[in-house]
């Protein structure tokens, strides 16, 4: 399995980000990825990016994109609601396929 680090961002950095993170871990696990999920609030993005390697940011709450410049950022509201998980999965797989 290919190891990836994902930042899951929601309003408080707890409930929604944990739900989204777990679902992403399951979805990508089915495609050969071992995901480590870090749950944060929007205000914690810059610190998380500065202190660890992040391959992808999945967000359900807006944050300053400049806090994570150069890191792919995908809207994960569809994962949270269950209404458009496939679109998120397609985009995430596209981003992650090029990782070394």
Quickly list its features.
globular, 100 residues, 4-stranded parallel β-sheet, 39% helix, alpha/beta, 4 helices, Rossmann fold
The percent of residues in helical segments reads 25-40%
What Rg, in angstroms, do the CA atoms define? 12 Å
Q: Based on the structure given, which CATH architecture is correct? A: 3-Layer(aba) Sandwich
The secondary-structure element order is EHEHEEHH
The CATH topology = Rossmann fold
- Superfamily (CATH H level) name: Response regulator
Q: What strand order characterises the main sheet?
A: 2-1-3-4
Shape: globular
Number of strands: 4
Largest sheet: 4 strands, parallel
What does it look like?
The chain is an alpha/beta fold and 100 residues long. The chain has one domain (2-96): 3-Layer(aba) Sandwich (Rossmann fold), CATH 3.40.50.2300. The chain has helices at residues 15-29, 45-51, 77-81, 85-96, and strands at residues 2-9, 33-40, 56-59, 73-75. The radius of gyration is 12 Å and the shape is globular. The mean pLDDT is 93.
């Amino acid at each position: 399995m290919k190891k990836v680090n994902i930042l899951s961002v929601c309003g408080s950095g707890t409930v929604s980000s944990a739900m989204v993170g777990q679902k992403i871990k399951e979805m990508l696990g089915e495609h050969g990825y071992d995901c480590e999920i870090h749950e944060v609030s929007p205000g914690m993005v810059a610190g998380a990016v500065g202190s660890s390697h992040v391959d992808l940011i999945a967000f359900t709450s807006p944050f300053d994109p400049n806090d994570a410049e150069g890191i792919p950022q995908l809207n994960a509201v569809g994962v949270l609601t269950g209404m458009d998980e496939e679109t998120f999965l397609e985009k995430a797989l596209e981003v992650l396929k090029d990782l070394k």
